[in-house]
Amino acid sequence: MIDYALIWAGLIAFAVLAYIILDGFDLGIGIMFPFIKKKEDKETAMNTIAPIWDGNETWLVLGGGGLFAVFPLAYAIILPALYMPIILMLLGLIFRGVAFEFHWRARKSQHLWDKGFAIGSLVAALCQGIALGALVQGITVENRAYAGGWWDWLTPFSITTGIALVVGYVLLGSTWLNMKTTGSLQKQSRGIAKIAGIATFGFIGLISLWMIFIEQQYLHRWFDAPNIYYLFVVPVLVFIVGVSLFITLKRERDVSPFLLSISLFLLSYIGLAISLFPNLVPPSVSIWDAAAPDSSLKFLLVGSAFLLPIILAYTTYAYWVFRGKVKEGEAYH
Questions:
Q1: Residue 330: partners with Cβ closer than 8 Å, 6 or more residues away
Q2: pLDDT in tens, 152-209
Q3: How far is Cα 75 from Cα 66, in angstroms, rounded to an integer?
Q4: What per-residue confidence (pLDDT) applies to 133?
Q5: For the chain, what are the domain ranges?
Q6: Angle between the 183-214 and 256-276 helix axes, to the nearest 10 degrees?
């Protein structure tokens, strides 16, 4: 028998991961924008993402829309629990998009829109991390509904995960600019990547240890036999990828640091999935509890079978067309 709920959980997990990676590096560029001093370098940085940044957010719509359609119970619980960070995240994304466009149009107030671009990116990234932390630490559920308070999402752990994601996005953004630019901007981006890489590596370790004390489920998942014998490969790979990242940055490689930064996010995401499975809303609502009827899942799966390849093809084509270095003075706007 086909497990449609599990298939959909995988598809939504893939959409969320695609969003984190693809929109992560342009949010990271926005966060580090105030530290780029030369006007020419700012415009070069924006031009590296101008053809692709809005398409990257398609995956957020797919993940959120998929959750609403396929796992309505999870959607009905998560949204009330995380109203504030989600609303602030959306406002940040909207403000960032407006600021991005006005950067090229409003010459007299350009410096204000540049600040708006940075603030919008920072708020969006911070709130994404806070929402993730609030989900991981568990949501109070009674009678299939959210039973917690308005401020349950705001805890030291969720704030820490928010800051960690901001730092991680800076790592993605700086390694992206290292790959896509030359000259002073590439050199500065490489320096920022080294600092962000150390901080990201530290946050991964801190949050991983913290999670063990938040919920017994996470402790047993990683340390009970026989899990411990084969799951240890994940932290080992994280360590190897982290060391390789610093080596490639020191050797001034262009592409490798960005790919290794993506690998660091991928491994962290896999580790998170291992901790949470099979719960969609920790600690008690599983994938199958939250899923819509199989008839709905099958119907929606047919549509996704046509939609997903189109999105993947378009995304791949866009990145292929705009591949290579972006030099100072070259513009797409």
A1: 44, 47
A2: 999 999 999 999 999 999 999 999 999 999 888 999 999 999 999 999 999 999 999 9
A3: 10
A4: 94
A5: 8-321
A6: 10
Total length of the chain: 333
Cβ–Cβ under 8 Å, residues 173 and 188: no
Q: Which two tokens stand for residue 7?
A: 């298939």
Separation of alpha carbons 164 and 200, rounded Å: 7
CATH class given for the domain over 8-321: mainly alpha
Q: Are 75 and 27 in contact (CB under 8 A)?
A: no
pLDDT tens digit sequence for 224-235? 888 888 889 999
**Distance from the Cα of residue 294 to its chain's centroid:** 29
Please identify every stretch of the chain with a pLDDT value under 50, giving residue numbers as ranges. Answer: 333
**What b/e string do you get for 8-39 counting C-beta neighbours within 10 Å, with b at 16 or more?**
bbebbbebbbbbbbbbbbbbbbbbbbeebeee
The pLDDT value given to residue 255: 93
- The pLDDT, as a whole number, for residue 203 is 95
- Cβ neighbours for 174, distance < 8 A, ≥ 6 positions apart: 28, 32, 189, 190, 192, 193, 196
